[in-house]
Every structure is written in C-alpha cells, then in structure tokens.
Amino acid sequence: MSAPIPDNRFLSDENSLALYLKEISKNKALSLEEEAKLAVRIREGDKKALEKLVKANLRFVV
Predict the structure, then answer these.
(1) What pLDDT score does 6 carry?
(2) CB 55 within 8 Å of CB 17
(3) More confident site: 34 or 23
(4) What is the dihedral of CA 45, 48, 33, 23, to 10 degrees?
(5) d(CA 19, CA 8)
(6) N or C: which end of the chain has fewer CB within 10 A?
(7) How buried is 41 (Cβ within 10 angstroms: 0-12 exposed, 13-18 middle, 19+ buried)?
(8) HEC profile for the chain?
(9) Sequence spans of domains, the chain
(10) How many CB atoms lie within 10 A of CB 32?
(11) Which tens digits make up the pLDDT trace of 39-59?
C-alpha cells in the first residue's frame, strides 16, 4: 500500500492569502480629497482613476 498523499491545500491557501495581503499593502490609502478627485474623474469615464480607487480600497475587502 502506498503512503497517503499529504493535503497541501491549506498551505497553498495561506500562501495565496499572504501574497494577496502583501500585494494590496503596496497601494497607499487615499485621503477624502483624493477619493473625491478620483470620483470626478471616474464620472468623466477615466478608467485609470477607477482602477486606482479600487486598488486603494482592496484592503477593506479582506
């Protein structure tokens, strides 16, 4: 009989979470003024402003 295969799913999940947290920590928090300016640009159709706002707020999703 062969040895059981270890279940590494949890280690992989922990590594994925650590990597995600490290990645989102690279984006600085925005001030209210910065958010307001981005909101205006987003309303005007600026996709980069939307991306910046989303990335800056990913820390609140975890």
Answers:
(1) 61
(2) no
(3) 34
(4) 150
(5) 17
(6) N
(7) middle
(8) CCCCCCCCHHHHHHHHHHHHHHHHCCCCCCCHHHHHHHHHHHHCCCHHHHHHHHHHHHHHCC
(9) 28-62
(10) 7
(11) 999 999 999 999 999 999 998
